[in-house]
Every structure is written in C-alpha cells, then in structure tokens.
Amino acid sequence: MIVWVVRRVAASIAIVWAVVTLTFFAIHAAPGSPFMPENSENIDPQTIQRIRQKFGLDQPLPLQYLFYIRNVTQGEFSESFALHRPVADALAEAIPHTFLLALAALLIDFTVGLALGIYQAMRERTAGDIVLGNVALFVNSMPTFWLGLVLLLVFAQRLSAFPVGGIADPVFCPRINSAACVLDFVWHLTLPALTLGLVGAAGTARFQRAAMLEVIRQEYVRTARAKGLRERRVWLVHALRNALLPFITLVGLAFPFLLTGAVLVETVFAWPGMGQLAVRAILERDYPVVTGAALVTSTMVVLGNLIADVLYAVADPRIRVRGAGA
Amino acid sequence: MRTPRPTVFAAVACLALLGSCERRGGCTGDHCGTLVIASAGEPDILLPPVSEFAATRDVTEPIFLKLADLGPSGNTVGDEDFQPQLAERWEWDAPTTLVFHLDPRAHWQDGQAVTAADVAFTYQVYTDTLVNSPFRSSLRQISAVTTRDSLTVVFRFRQRYPEMFYDAVYHMRIMPAHLLREVPRDQWRSTAFGRAPVGDGPYRFVAWKAGQSIELAADSTFFLGRPYIRRLIWRFTPDQQVAVTQLLAGDADAIEVLITPDNVQRACADPKLACYPYKGAQYGYVGFNLAVPGDTTKPHPLFGDRDLRRALVLATDRERPLHNVFGELARVPPGPMSQLWWIWDPEIRELPYDSAQAARLLKRLGWIDSDGDGIRDKDGHELSFRLLVPTTSAIRRQYARLLQESFRTAGVDVQLDEVDFSVFNERARAGRFDALLNVWNTDPTPSSGFPQTWTKAGFGRSNYGRYFSPQVDQLVDRAVSAAATRDQARRAWRSAFETLNQDAPGIFLFATENVAAVNKRFTDVRIRPDSWLALVRSWRVPSDRLTDRDRVER
C-alpha cells in the first residue's frame, strides 16, 4: 500500500510540474504583453521597457523558466505585475474563498444528487423517476453562468432575498459580531454555491441512479430480500453501501469541474476567488499570477484525485492488489 | 427528520432583512452618511504617483490633496479658475516662477504638518525615472521645485505657456516625505504604504479587502471642513453589469457611469435613484495606419493616400451608429476630442457625410466595382482592409459591425480582427494593423494628450497610425506653448483640428456623455466631469433620510 501511495504521489508531482511548465510557456507564447494601462494616452515605451527589465522579461525565455522553477521550489512566487504585491499574498487571499465555494457546492452536489439518485432508483420507471430524470437532464445541460444569472435576477434583483454579489456586506459585517458575520457569509455564499452545486447534483443523480440499479440486481441483494429484510433496509443498507463505491471516483472528478465552473460563477457573483484572479491575470498578461494560479489549481485537482484513489483503494482491496501487481 | 427550530429561521430571516431592518440608535445628525459605490474596477495600488487607473484616482482623490484643484468651469488656462487646496494662496514672482504658500492648518493623518519639503519631495518622486510615474512627461516643463521656508515652495518653469499653473498642480498629489523617504525609488510600486496609505485629505484609509471592498472614513479634523458623509465604501465587481445590478438591488448607493442606454433607462426609472449626466472624457475613432503594417518606412497601400481616407470619411454616416449604440449618451465629435475639453466646439469644420461625393471621389481614384461583386476594385485589388477591435469592449465590437455594414454599401470590404485587449494594445503600438477602433481617455485639456496621439511627438508612443502634418504640429505647438491668452489658444487649437480633419487620419465616431446614478437620499450631489468624486466632501444625507447603513456605528 505504501509503495502504491508513494508511486501515486510521485506521479502527481510530475503532473503538477507538467501543468506548470505548459502554462508558463503557453502564457508567454500568447500574443499581447503586460504593463499596458487601458485607453491611456500617457503610455511611455521607455517606462514599459524599464519595468520589463525589472521583472526579467528581457531575458531569454528558457532562462526565465529556470528562474521561475528555482523560485517555486524555494516557495517564492515573485510579484504580480498588475496587483503590485506578492503573488503568494494574492493567492493566499483567494484560495480560501474558492475552496469554501467549492466545498459548499460539493455538499449541495452530493447531498441533492445522492438523494435524488436513490429516490429515482427506488421508483424506477414511475412518473416521479421520469420527471426527475428530465429535470436533472435539463439542469445538467445548463451552462453554469446562465443558471447563475437566472438565480441572480430572480432571487437577488427581483425578490431581494439574497445579495447581488461579494462575500460579505462591506457596511455591516465589520460592525456586527462575528457569528452574525458568519451567517452573512453563508447568505452571500448561497446563490453561487447553488449555481455550482445544482448543475453538479443533476449529473450525480443520474450517476447514482444507474449505480443503484446495477447493484440492486446483484445476487446478494436478492439474498437479502429472500431473508425477509424490509425493502427500505435492502435499498439503504445493502444496495447503497456498494453503490457508493464508484461515487468515490466521482468526488475526484467533481473537483476539476467545480474549479473550472468557479471561474464563471465567481465572475457572475463577484466572488473574489481563484477563478476571478486567474481571469484578470490572463487578460492583463500577469504571468506570475497565471502560473501561480495554475500551480495551485493543478495541485488541488491532483490532490483531490489522489485522495479519491486512496479512499477507493481502502474501500476496495482489489484496486490495491491490481495496482501493486502492475 | 428533526424540524429546525424557529430561532434558526428567525436569525436567518433577520440577517436577510439586515438592509431593511429599522434599528434604533446609532449615528444621528448631519455627518452620518455612508456612501457605497459599485465599481467595476479595483485600484492596483493606492499611490497616485505610480498608477493612473480611474479606480485608483477615485479612491485616492479624497485621501491625498493637490496644491490647488480645477474649479467648476474646468478652465485649465491661467490660474484664476483654480481653487486652493493645500496651498492657501500663490503668486508669480517672475513669468516662470510660481510661489505657493501652504495652508498652515494642513496636516497628515498621523498628526505631522504638511510642509514645503513634502511638495519638493513629491516633485522628485514624480519625475524620478526609477519610480516610472506615468505623469512624468506632464511635468517636463517644470525645471525645479524648491523650498523657501517650511510653508513656501517655489516652482520654476523652463518657459512661459498658458497651462503652467495646471501642470504645476493637476498631475501631482502631495505625498508624505516623512513616511516615504526611506522607500527605495524602484520599489514604490510594491511598497506597503500603497495598500494602507496615510494622507492629508478629507478621508482617511480604513481597510482594503482585495477583490471585495475599500473603506475610507471621514477625517473630522480636516482643515478645510469636516465632510458630511462619514464613510466611503467601494464594492468591487469584475463586471460592469453586476455593478449596475448591485445598484438597482440597493446593495450600492452610487455608480460612476451607467454606460449603456439600457442601464440608464433602468436606473433613471428607479424611484430610489437620481441620475446625473456629465461630460465624458472619452472619444472613440477609427484610426487609419498611414504606414505599412509593421514597416514604418513605407506608406500604407490604401491609407497612405489622403484622398482615399477622405473618401472613407465622407462615406461614413456617423450619426446612425452613434444612436444605435449610445442613444443620447454620446455626440459625434468635431475631431479627435472629448466633450471634457474646453475647446469643444461643434462649429469646427470637418468633412461631412456625403455618400455621393465619396462615390465620385472613389471613382476618380480608380476604385470601381468592375466585376459586379459589390466591392470596388482597382488593378485587380479589392478595396478591402482589416479593422482591429478589442473583444473586451462590447461597444466597440458593436460599432465595428455597424461600420462594416455601412462600408459594404459604399463598396468597401472590411474584415474584423477581434482580439483581446492585450493583443490589441501590442499590435496598435507595433503598428501591425490597417485600421483600428480605438478609444482614448483624456485629461481635462488637449495639451498633454493630443501631442502624443496626433503629432510627430507621438511616434513610437500613442500616435499609432503615424499621422504627421507639419502644419498641425506647428499649430499645436502654438496652442500649447506660445498662446498668450485663452482666446489665442482656442483659435490655434481650432485651426489645428480643422487642418487635421481635412487630412482625415481617422473617422471620429463618438465623444461620450456620462450618466452617474446616486441614491436619492444623498443631496448636494455635484459631479466634476474630470473626476466624479472630487466634490464628494460636500455630498450629504439629511438627518431625516438616514438609513441603517448610515447610522450603523463603529
């Protein structure tokens, strides 16, 4: 098991390195250049040249790459061109926001998705199953930003039940007690988390329904029924336990989806997370922030998958055996 | 399943209604207002010498003072229309020597007095090549700034010209020497002071939550009078539409500009909002590249021909796309100018819209549709060019499509090169385009920006199309440097614009008119067009209109 885990960790590090390297060369190869204020008449080419020298952009690209890798291995992320502050500081502020958003969305995704999937499987081919299946397909087909805009329009602008954006009320939050501020945060989190979570939940429901139906036809379930167990117990204890196994894989797969979805949702809801930071950095050709964001994001995705793999191996010894033999 | 206790619902419901809950107590009186501003842009750093973002200007305006500021007339010539800020008075010792006397009551928010040494230090910083201030070139006519005593500072100019006073006071916000002297000049862009500044203005910095908000609090000891609004809070969004939605939903109180006619209609129809139109600082145009793309030594095969450029201008109906895109929120400019400029004059002569004359001119130049495909051609080449447009601007993309269609009816094929802003800028600077749809944000006067964009002095800078006319350069030089009076300067500028218009280096499409929206509980709202929050110190919320947002303490 330890050898297997070590091997997986090594592979994960290699993947992160590959992503960062590709991102570094891709963003430098992209047309456009940093340090260009929009619509300003006061652009001084000499000023821009001096700033390029300061950040080492006048050096050959392979040399810049070597410097970058050296700095990253030493835990230094350089300074943002556009934000005028260390990239590590900007990332450290944005990561918790995205992480909390992803976590809340994941909670909605799996709670709603699992419940719907089980409900549909237990009522296979009934009107409820068919209606819910179509609703899930409809929601799953929606682009996340569109769903976000609809929720924003209905619940924030029309009904004023939720705030339009941001993570906290800038007037009241600093002036009320911290418990109320936490509730304020949850209030601000609701719409973006629902946007991300509901789209994911629709997919999870379809996946879980199929998994439940596959398991329910197994012989051990028939045995359980033959032993006279109540139908509810057969479904929720015997069938669900085994149907949850592929669900662990889904956790690993959900992470990249949530992080990419967060880019759009964070823009719609003015949520100051990694996605918003990365989009702004790409548009402004803020190379250190783009590569820093790629490093953090790929690490989070790889880590999510690694945890899912480990959990899967713990839950199903056959995976370990096959992995060790390979 | 357990039912959640009613208290949980009550707590959530109360929180949800936080904005509308009527609570007793809190601030009362004339100095209680809280202004929440929805902003689609966030400052990069709160240090005026190193940033020229509009968002930075807005936030630093109430923190740092100038020696004097523009008056309501917006007149930048002479000194009579300027209003004292840090300087309580000034006089001219000689034609090129200007002496400022600082107000002895002025102090930094840490208690130190503002001195002449701060002014001299500020000038050194703004002109230091290591600091790389974007305003450095605007101070090139000032040869020295020295101190006479702790409250007297002397500006010396290289020559006499109409906007000497404007140059001395408008570009520089005075910095605290005692807090910044030790910061190495090449590290000004990342100094910690830039994220928690100490100023001398009516508001002091409180907090900056990156990506979320910035808060300023009124300085009740401000020497020019205590501000009425006690808190200014900017809420940042990555998108203008989200900012407008925040305003309409009541999450914010004010927005600088509504941009689209649709937003203006919605905001102005909202009973809780008041709209304030004011002159815009932007103008947009199609700029022709007079040189071969990427090779400045050869004339462009199409736009090197003055008559062809004139024909294209004559063929363009500028009113129709303007009304399609902006409605009443812009005007066709009489040349490359914003409405903000004091020389704005619709009587300035320009080429009219005359499609018949355009067709005759094109035919005379040999551009006829010989193969009946609807596009004019000559010597086997179609009359076709590519128009560079940034994808980040919805307005410019919309304009580009309307122009494309308009040119097609004149027998001209236009292909759109839509690229993101960074690429647009890079290609514009390198001259790698046939024509581009550009927008400039201007200063209150043409003297600083115009020479960089439409004269030889702008080659390699902002004169992307490399337009050059010795006559225009001479007239601009006369307007900027030699005119003795405002009228003389106006006449020189007018001649320069009329000469430029006849050369048709571009099609000048729109000069914006801005509309700000502010919650109606705010009164005494006055907006200065060059900086919409410059007069925020005098805005107020009458005590009978205070809401919880205004009253909340701490």
Summary of the model, kept short:
The complex is a heterodimer of chains A (326) and B (554). Chain A is an all-alpha fold and 326 residues long.
Give a written overview of the molecule.
The complex is a heterodimer of chains A (326) and B (554). By secondary structure, chain A is mainly alpha-helical. Chain A has helices at 2-29, 45-54, 61-73, 87-122, 127-141, 144-158, 178-216, 219-226, 231-243, 245-268, 274-283, 287-315, 317-325. With 554 residues, chain B is an alpha+beta fold. In chain B, the strands form 5 sheets. In chain B, strands 1, 8, 9, 10, 11, 12, 15, 18, 19, 20 and 21 form an 11-stranded mixed β-sheet that branches. A 4-stranded antiparallel β-sheet of chain B has the order 4-5-7-6. In chain B, strands 2-3 form a two-stranded antiparallel sheet. At the A-B interface, helix 2, helix 4, helix 6, helix 7 and helix 10 of A face helix 1, strand 10, helix 6, helix 12 and strand 20 of B.
Task: Compile the SSE list and pairings.
The complex is a heterodimer of chains A (326) and B (554).
Chain A: H1 2-29, H2 45-54, H3 61-73, H4 87-122, H5 127-141, H6 144-158, H7 178-216, H8 219-226, H9 231-243, H10 245-268, H11 274-283, H12 287-315, H13 317-325
Chain B: H1 6-16, E1 33-39, H2 54-60, E2 68-69, E3 83-84, E4 87-94, E5 97-102, H3 116-127, E6 142-149, E7 152-157, H4 164-170, H5 177-180, E8 203-209, E9 213-218, E10 229-236, H6 240-248, E11 254-255, H7 261-269, E12 273-288, E13 291-292, E14 295-299, H8 306-314, H9 319-326, E15 330-331, H10 355-364, E16 377-378, E17 381-382, E18 384-390, H11 394-409, E19 413-419, H12 421-430, E20 435-441, H13 446-454, H14 470-482, H15 486-503, E21 506-519, H16 548-551
Parallel strand pairs in B: 1-10, 1-11, 18-19, 18-20
Antiparallel strand pairs in B: 2-3, 4-5, 5-7, 6-7, 8-9, 9-10, 11-21, 12-20, 12-21, 13-14, 15-21, 16-17
